[in-house]
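Title: Prediction job returns without error message
Component: structure pipeline
Severity: low
Priority: P3
Assignee: unassigned

Description:
Job completed but the reporter wants confirmation the result is attached to the right record. Sequence as submitted:
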Amino acid sequence: GGSLRVARTDRGEPSWRERAVQFADREAKYALGADWYLRRWPIPEGSLDVGIDGSASYLHSAEAALRLPPLFAPHAKLVLVLSDPVTRAARLWRGDRPFA
């Protein structure tokens, strides 16, 4: 097996806030086009690197459900990371908002 590495943008490793692109469920960003979106993660062909979009709103967005499959199918893998709701609520209450 190979190793899994996250592709870096030209500014270095993006923060989680920068990874939350909100492309597929925000009309203004979707209007920028798929090329704009995919340039966020320049991955050389044949590379094992991956791009990560941390947009949590895709999980409940009808627009994202319709827009993302044609862009990536059949090559995309969906990884869903859910946090403990009590821990997340405590983080939000403290003001530590990595996904806000």
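Comment from assignee: result matches the submitted record. The helical segments are 16-19, 27-30, 34-38, 62-72, 85-94.
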